Amino acid sequence: MSRLLLLLWVALCTSAALAGYTPRVAYLLHCGGCHLADGRSNPPEVPDLRDELGKIVAVPGGRDYLARVPGASQAPVSDEDLAGILNWVLHQFNADTLPADFTPLTGEEVGRSRRNVLTDPLKHRTALWQRYETAPQ
Description:
Elements: H1 2-19, H2 23-30, H3 32-35, H4 52-56, H5 62-68, H6 70-73, H7 79-94, H8 107-114, H9 121-134
């Protein structure tokens, strides 16, 4: 019986500690396995999160794309937490490429987008990248 109580206590403490985690910790828990701690990965299967995302959010549909990628849209976090993670990724790994007028994603915006999971995120990302390259700079 005391072992069961100990396990319950550990579970409660762990869940309480994770309830207030930072976007960085949430990124490491939910994204860092594929994208690594510094945003690197193995393109094209797992896109790199460094520098390109700042350019992608500059084109129509780019903000929406971030929350629709299966790994993001399916993450077991709230819309507000996902917005926090995405904003952290954008500022941490894309600060030099973010548009000057960038405004942080909101939980409401992310919630609308993540309901429409992308079936082919690589194809969608390629189209966004082409929009960026052909847009007036």
